[in-house]
């Protein structure tokens, strides 16, 4: 398992400008970027000018041609304008935040669902959950507000420097070095904070993986059966401690940064008082001290918020890594995919021609030079020992593993970001599969998989209504659904439910027995009306009575369909036309 599971990527260095640009594009569309930035700029400039104009109201020597009442009126106008712009900015920001959450989540989900089977084999579930919980939560709750706050603070800082320097030119002699110290502090602390946040995010994945392994499947039952409760709790505590240590160090780093920024602010304030004591009147010194306090407070907040923004941006960077570097299944084989008729496949003939493939580089072939011809409407039973390659036939048929080396998704090295090259001396996957004479490598993957109905060993039901689980595409009328339920002998069970077809299916279909879930899956396959039906150990976990119902359904409802049956029980495949 250690050889299959890949190490989680740990990026280094500062956040690239591409990440900031992509996050901005998730907030607003490309056509609204400039208006959105101008809106932030105007609203902050109004606040700065409003504060400066307030100083002219109390100073009769400034703009003496304007009466006191007019000055108050102009100040009120600036306040009203600032309020209006902030309201507009707030409304647009709320819509932008919603849009950002939707766009980021959609892109991540699409790339996860579009990843090849090899990705899920080599990636722990906790790592994927970490993207959808920790990283998405940070981008939704913290990142958007920090992005807006930091943008406004930088504009306010520039405005304060300009306004104070107009009245007090020597302020630049102290203000610019202090600003440089704040900037150096931000670079020094920011580098450590980014890496600590990355380490904390990575250490969160094993905790989620451990939790997921515990509560899903037979995890709890197995732990209790072997009396491993204490060992499992001890392992969870160890993983949780590793994650907590990194989080504590990250939090203590914030306190350290706050202490040093306060020291810089104190030194700056002492310099202003000392220089102003000998060169300024008491009234101007008071104004300079007040302005300096605003400047230092802004400097401290910018350091904290800017570093916090960079640290939180690591979560978006982790999401962006999946959204850009994750290998994807080939949605179409070439630039000119075959345009098939809606009735394809009409006969359901399946031909394997010298099919050989391995699941990943470095492993032996699981199928080697396999060839057979399954006529349309024929029933074929496939049996063999565990690991003989029965399910591998389905992997090739559904193109979960590509036979054409050109179509195989390239796995990405998480440390370099470049594709992992296979051994040039290794013999590649080869062969081809034809359905009704059409090479499936030249067919859209989505079109291919919609044309084949599968009934797996573990019956899968989705949260929602029973009608949705039977007829996912909403193509059939209720009369047809009830008719199919009668065919699979589930009509009486469903009719006894108060809501009938609108009965809510619990998570995993827990409100139905294993046999009933399997019969519902058979009903779904009948409603799909595919010419090819694949059964992968479909009766392995049901009782003899349910197995008899399923065999009767196969004989009656799949009479003119090509049925591919993988099973261990001989009575499951004894009615097949041929055995492989």
From TrEMBL:
GO terms for MF: ABC-type transporter activity; ATP binding; ATP hydrolysis activity
Domain ABC transporter residues, every copy: 350-580
Protein name in UniProt: ABC transporter: Multidrug resistance-associated protein, ATP binding protein
Predominant cellular place of this UniProt entry's protein: membrane
Domain ABC transmembrane type-1 positions: 37-311
Membrane association type: Multi-pass membrane protein
GO cellular component, as recorded: membrane
UniProt superkingdom: Eukaryota
Transmembrane portions of the chain: 21-52, 72-92, 146-164, 170-189, 256-279
Compartments (UniProt record): Membrane
Gene3D superfamilies: ABC transporter type 1, transmembrane domain, P-loop containing nucleotide triphosphate hydrolases
Record key words, sorted: ATP-binding, Membrane, Nucleotide-binding, Repeat, Transmembrane, Transmembrane helix, Transport
